[in-house]
Amino acid sequence: GESVGLHLPTLSVQEGDNSIINCAYSNSASDYFIWYKQESGKGPQFIIDIRSNMDKRQGQRVTVLLNKTVKHLSLQIAATQPGDSAVYFCAENENGGSNYKLTFGKGTLLTVNP
Amino acid sequence: DADVTQTPRNRITKTGKRIMLECSQTKGHDRMYWYRQDPGLGLRLIYYSFDVKDINKGEISDGYSVSRQAQAKFSLSLESAIPNQTALYFCATTGGTSGAGTDTQYFGPGTRLTVL
Fold first, then answer.
1. Is the pLDDT score of B60 beyond 80?
2. Which of B104, B106, B112 is the best substitution to test chain A (most A C-beta atoms within 10 A)?
3. A contacts of B95 (beta carbons < 8 Å)
4. Given an 8 Å threshold on Cβ–Cβ distance, is A32 in contact with B43?
5. Do B64 and B91 meet the contact criterion of CB atoms below 8 Å apart?
6. What is the pLDDT of residues A45-89, one digit of tens each?
7. Residues of chain A positioned with their CB less than 8 A from the CB of B107
8. Is A79 helix (H, G, I), strand (E, B) or coil?
9. What is the nearest CA distance from B108 to chain A, expressed in angstroms?
10. C-alpha distance from A18 to closest chain B C-alpha (Å)
11. Bond prior to A82 in cis (omega within 30° of 0)
12. Backbone angle region of B9, left / alpha / beta, with phi > 0 → left and psi within -120 to 50 → alpha
């Protein structure tokens, strides 16, 4: 079956550096993607989303890039802070229209060193 | 997200017991979901509901049942708990016109369930 996955299970960066978390997806019909942040002991928290008619979207210190040609999604965090330490999940919407079911990747653990 | 609440937050029970996990939301969303999270496996969908009269099985519904008592309430039951149902359980909601988009799911804080 089609799935969403992550290239790197763990990422360690220095405070102040930029972080890039990658995600590969295989469902060419997916048209909506979300990045979630999950801190220890908490539920996933929405960070940013992007639809397939866009290739870039920016938020506060975060940017999501979508490359539909190679089915790749990335989350860039600028000036990474200790509070950014968490597990980051990408998710895709399977049907993009009336379904609203999301398929989640397994997550990448981001550790920010002071 | 305080708009989605789950009770209890932690529960330890014994094999064979019936357990109910509750979820309530004040976001006015019509769609609600139950997931379980296991280390290394990510989030897996158990059941979902698009409105009060609509209940659908997810990828791992065996051993679970749900009840959508109202638009704002969606309960998950383990009819006869077994140790491999030990996991983190999350409720999520989506829908409406607020937030990032109608497809964005908003999660509760989770319930840690341990079955001995």
1. yes
2. B104
3. 100
4. no
5. no
6. 999 999 889 999 999 999 999 999 999 999 999 999 999 999 999
7. 36, 43-45
8. coil
9. 6
10. 24
11. no
12. alpha
Instruction: Tell me the two tokens of residue B105.
Output: 């799911």
Tally of residues, chain A: 114
Q: Find residues 49-108 of chain A whose CB sits inside 8 Å of chain B.
A: 49, 89, 91, 93, 100-102, 104-107
What's the angle, vertex CA A56, arms to CA A52 and CA A59, rounded to 5?
A: 115
Residue type, A77: I
Is the pLDDT score of B81 beyond 80?
A: yes
DSSP per position, chain B = -TTEEEE-SEEEE-TT--EEEEEEE-S--SEEEEEEEETTTEEEEEEEEEETTEEEE-TT-TTEEEEEEETTEEEEEESS--GGG-EEEEEEEE-SSSSS-TT--EE---EEEEE-
Map tokens 């539909």 to a residue: A68
Cβ contact, residue pair B107, A44, below 8 Å: yes
3-state secondary structure of A83: helix
Cβ distance of A46 and B109 shorter than 8 Å: no
| Strands A108-113 and A10-14, bridge-based pairing | parallel
Please name the residues between 65 and 104 in chain B that touch chain A, using a CB distance below 8 Å: 90, 92, 94-95, 99-104
* Residue B108 touches partner A, C-beta closer than 8 Å: yes
Non-local CB neighbours of B81 within 8 Å, separated by 6+ positions: B13, B14, B15, B16, B17, B18, B19, B113, B115
Asked if the model's pLDDT at residue A98 lies above 70, the reply is: no
Place of tokens 């929405």: A46
